[in-house]
Write a structure and sequence with these properties.
Radius of gyration: 23 Å
Number of strands: 14
Strand order of the largest sheet: 3-2-1-8-9
Helix content: 40-55%
Order of helices and strands: EHEHHEHEEHEEHEHEEEHHEHEHHEH
Strand content: 15-25%
Bound molecules: zinc ion
Distance between the termini: 25 Å
Length: 389
């Protein structure tokens, strides 16, 4: 697992855009970084965990319009549901949790600095945009900055295609390069906008949002930036490039969780093939079984959610609960050491689960006379794996 560079480990995990509740892909990402959080705490480190919620962005506004509801109400409802899901999944909460709207003064300051340094530029607006100051254009970052790392193995054209697929706007007229990302989007008719001094009224770009929240909460450099693998490009590449353009370093390590599929396709809002944590909870599925199903896969692995995965996890949970129900049991010293060793080895959760399986199996078949051993296992599983037995 990534080593922290100081006594305070800093981790920034990219949050959701709250227009649909938590699906298993989000849950798997959250659990992956929660595992790292817990491993760092177990090492005796103080952890500063920061996250965001992108509570104003194009997909949220589009969904609110499609549903005929107020975008801010939709964002607040879905953010609250996400928080409930995280609590149910025993994900330790962030110390700093900021929304894009709250971060607007930080974004405005950073975008102004980038303009002053010549690392950003204005793009003229189409007629009707820009409110009282249509002469002030949208602001884009200059992606020609050498800090921008393009995707290894992809040429410029393929990178542009990926950029478009993942929310970028390569075809926007007036940009210097198709890959330049938006920093500040000016006011459009019917869209929310906030005044931002010399930038004019508008709203923040996505990548700069995470850059400035991380910078404020964690400083110029921090240990880990995390998210699902689909955030690797452009989001993490661009947010790190922005951090460097602002004079900082951003994350020392970027860590990405694998994608969760359903019936052979990646679970995503755009495909609509979502399994929601809240739906599973409503159906009476124990959230600890959901968490165990996630932990049965290495965080970086792609995997598929299906009934069998959930049934296996539910059975494991039942077995573990039965095994820790007595006062005495097999000695747990080696089990605890193996769980810790597995997590230290790049958060090898499946190996940690196997160690607990082995102890539980011995406990249920052979028993044991070490008083308090079941309690040791229950507390270790709770503290290190986030599984409440
Ligand atoms: Zn982010």
């Amino acid at each position: 697992m990534p080593a922290a560079t100081g006594p305070v480990a800093g981790m920034y995990v990219c949050g959701i855009t709250p227009y649909d509740a938590t699906h298993l892909g989000h849950a798997a990402t959250a659990v992956a970084f929660d595992l790292l959080h817990r491993a760092w705490l177990d090492e005796g480190l103080e952890v500063r965990f920061v996250s965001n919620v992108t509570d104003v962005d194009d997909p949220l506004l589009e969904r609110a319009a499609a549903l005929g509801v107020d975008w801010a109400t939709l964002a607040a409802e879905q953010s609250a549901l996400y928080a409930d899901d995280m609590t149910a999944l025993a994900v330790l909460p962030p110390q700093v949790y900021l929304g894009a709207v709250e971060a607007i003064p930080l974004v405005a300051d950073a975008v102004t600095r980038l303009l002053d340094r010549g690392l950003a530029y204005r793009v003229p607006l189409e007629p009707g945009a820009g409110g009282a100051h249509p002469e002030l254009g949208d602001v884009y970052a200059d992606a020609h900055a050498p800090e921008v790392e393009l995707v290894p193995g992809l040429d410029h054209d393929a990178t542009v295609a990926l950029f478009a697929e993942r929310g970028g706007d390569p075809a926007r007229p007036g940009k210097r390069d198709p890959l330049d990302p938006a920093l500040w989007r000016r006011e459009r008719p019917g869209e929310p906008a906030w005044d931002a001094g010399v930038l004019g009224s508008g709203r923040p770009g996505w990548h700069i949002e995470c850059t400035v929240i991380a910078e404020q909460a964690l400083g110029d450099a921090f240990d880990v930036q995390g998210g699902g693998r689909d955030l690797c490009f452009p989001h993490h590449a661009m947010s790190t490039a922005h951090a460097k353009a602002l004079g900082g370093q951003g994350a020392r390590v970027q860590l990405h969780a694998g994608m969760v599929a359903l019936a052979g396709e990646k679970m995503s809002k755009s495909l609509g093939n979502l399994v929601l944590v809240s739906t599973l909870r409503t159906e009476g599925v124990d959230p600890m079984a959901v968490r165990l199903a996630i932990l049965a896969h290495h965080y970086s692995q792609d995997w598929e959610w299906n009934d069998e995965v959930l049934a296996t996890a539910t059975e494991r949970l039942t077995t573990w609960r039965a095994a820790v129900s007595g006062n005495g049991g097999p000695d747990a010293t080696a089990t605890l050491a193996e769980v810790r060793a597995a997590l230290a080895e790049d958060l090898e959760a499946p190996r940690a689960l196997a160690a607990v399986d082995s102890w539980a199996s011995t406990s249920l078949t052979l028993g044991g006379d070490v008083e308090g051993a079941p309690g040791v296992v229950a507390r270790a599983v709770d503290a290190l794996l986030g599984i409440r037995l």
